[in-house]
Amino acid sequence: MRMAAIIVVASLALASPAVGEQTSPADQEMLRIRQTMSNQVVEAISRNDAAAWADHYTTDAVSVSLCPESPPVVGREALAKRAERSLKAGVRDYSAKVKEVHLLSDGLAWSTGTATFTINDKDGKPQQGRSNWFDMLRREGPVWRVSFQALARVPCSP
Fold first, then answer.
1. 22-36 tens-digit pLDDT
2. Does 1 have pLDDT greater than 80?
3. Which of 114, 87, 120 is nearest to 100 (CA)?
4. What phi and psi, each to the nearest 5 degrees, are found at residue 137?
5. Residue 151, SS3?
6. Is the pTM of this model over 0.90?
7. HSE value, Cβ hemisphere, 13 Å, CA-based, for 106
8. For the chain, where are the alpha helices, taking DSSP H only?
9. Residue 49's closest CA among 80, 78, 74?
């Protein structure tokens, strides 16, 4: 697992533009698309709409929390159930900012970003949270969706 993570990071470093290098028009357009996707998730969470939240994932998507570590969630239906649990736990005030996006080929891209949110702790008290993500995006017809996502809360808590 550690070796796979090292390979992914090294591959992204090689595929990324050098510091100060301009992103391509295709990457700029992909950044706009990915931020729109994030904004739609913000709207879905504000409406308590787990189905709309989960619709941003492919039917075979894999999402994994790296910190705190938890088993992968596989498939849009399972992601919808996780979204329902998150909404019941009081997730709100969600905002997301895409940091970087790169188009790898026609219909395939990756992105990184951060999210902030409020969630209730086990005693029902609101807590501020922040997470970082890395995801792979796949176009299904005219619609882009997340096919793989790795999340990590900052700071990491068990």
1. 689 999 999 999 999
2. no
3. 114
4. -115, 140
5. strand
6. no
7. 2
8. 2-15, 25-46, 50-54, 76-88
9. 80
